[in-house]
Design a protein that fits this description.
Blueprint lengths: L3 H4 L11 H8 L5 E2 L11 H6 L14 H11 L6 E4 L2 H12 L7 E5 L5 H8 L3 E5 L1 E2 L2 E2 L1 H7 L4 E7 L11 H10 L5 E5 L3 H5 L1 H14 L3 E6 L12 E5 L1 H10 L7 H11 L2 H25 L3 E2 L5 E5 L3 H12 L1 E2 L1 E4 L2 E5 L3 H14 L2
Parallel strand pairs: 1-13, 3-4, 3-7, 7-8, 8-9
Antiparallel strand pairs: 2-10, 5-6, 9-10, 11-12, 12-15, 14-15
Helix pairs in contact: 4-12, 5-6, 13-15, 14-15
The structure holds pyridoxal-5'-phosphate.
The site of pyridoxal-5'-phosphate has 13 residues, from helix 5.
Length: 358
């Protein structure tokens, strides 16, 4: 039998920099963090007003009734279709354990470059992962279908994809779902869905998917557009038989009461967040104009980040952090991802890009 020490030796710890240590190392007062795809604007002012530290000695109510009713109302989907968790990470973490079996030699089909949680949990559970090549940054849904075999139990699609930012249209997704055998679970991770489609259209699309297909989980987060990353709230929409499986298998009360209050307040201020989607798009255009001017290859991104190609990621990263205190994310030797910051932060990066590429 393989030793306990060796069993998980292929797992890698996330290589995440610490802002304070980085500031100290490079002698900056502050670091501009464009690393995690957080929303660099503050959440709706209603969030601050909503948080009341009352009865901290009492558990939150089972099934998060207020938030679930609000979401049910906005999506026009029954409340039994929603499940919340401590960030959408926590839902993704459960999926391989619940829906794939090592004993049955199941595999999970996912894109070769995408968000890593499902792959990590698959590795922990010794479940095989089949990776599908991207088409110039886009998840090729036909190739994902071709990769399915008799042992496939889960397919994971991030839309828009992260880190590339490329989007499959709603029509493509529907067409794809129609072709996936019904005994395979499809997970559609829409952490950036509101940015890509706009809030209204995104949620209308979700309703159509959930009404049509009973083998789908759509995941969403309050960490991105809703600017509540520190509160850790994520949720999924799926058919009640799947939602109930999560309720039976995992924590009854996965989210603290104050996070639920914050999420409810944020979700009730659509106008505020429509404005953020708009500002995010305007700021992306500023980046694109700069990339064009400097002849830098990039992908048009549907998230709150941009993906670009550089000659040498390490030297560009070092230049940005040492001179300007900006932390970005290296993806590959020749590719990096930059989170869209505030206009002031983006101006600093744009200035740095122009200086680096003179
Ligand atoms: C594609 C994608 N899915 C899910 C998550 C997890 O978000 P959270 O756990 O904060 O809800 C992230 C975070 O960066 C992400 O990029």
């Amino acid at each position: 039998m393989i030793s306990l020490k060796r069993r998980f030796s292929n797992l890698k710890e996330a290589n995440l920099p610490n802002s304070k240590e980085t500031a100290k190392k490079y002698g900056h007062k502050e670091i501009i963090k464009l690393f995690y795809n957080e929303n660099k604007y503050l959440p709706s002012p209603k969030v601050r007003e909503s948080i009341k530290i009352n009865s901290p000695n009492i558990y939150p109510e089972y099934k998060e009734p207020m938030l679930i009713e609000k979401l049910s109302d906005v999506f026009q989907i029954d409340s039994s279709y929603f499940y919340f968790s401590n960030g959408s990470d926590a839902i993704l973490d459960c999926i391989p354990t619940l829906f794939a079996s090592k004993t049955n030699k199941n595999n999970i089909v996912l894109p070769e470059l995408t968000f890593g949680r499902i792959e990590t949990t698959a590795l922990v559970n010794d479940i095989e992962v089949k990776k599908v090549q991207l088409d110039d940054g886009l998840i090729n849904l036909d190739k994902m279908l071709e990769a399915i075999d008799s042992k496939t139990s889960i397919i994971y699609v991030v839309n828009p994809n992260m880190p590339t930012g490329k989007l499959n249209s709603h029509e493509n997704i529907i067409n794809f779902l129609e072709n996936v055998p019904n005994n395979i679970l499809v997970v559609i991770d829409e952490a950036y869905g509101e940015y890509a489609f706009g809030i209204k259209e995104n949620y209308e699309n979700n309703k159509e998917i959930i009404d049509k297909f009973d083998n789908v989980i759509i995941t969403h987060t309050f960490s991105k557009l809703y600017a509540l990353a520190s509160f850790r709230v994520g949720y999924m929409i799926s058919r009640p038989y799947i939602v109930n499986l999560f309720r039976k298998a995992y924590q009854y009360l996965p989210i603290n009461k104050y996070s639920l209050q914050a999420a409810l307040a944020a979700f009730s201020d659509k106008n505020y967040y429509d404005q953020i989607v708009k500002k995010n798009n305007e700021e992306k255009e500023k980046y694109y104009a700069t990339f064009e001017e400097l002849k830098i290859k990039y992908y048009k991104s549907f998230g709150n980040f941009v993906y670009l190609f550089v000659d040498d990621n390490k030297s560009f990263e070092e230049f940005l952090v040492s001179k300007y205190g900006v932390l970005i994310r290296s993806i590959r030797n020749n590719a990096i991802r930059i989170t869209i910051g505030t206009p002031e932060e983006n101006d600093i990066v744009i200035k740095a890009l122009k200086e680096y590429y003179v």
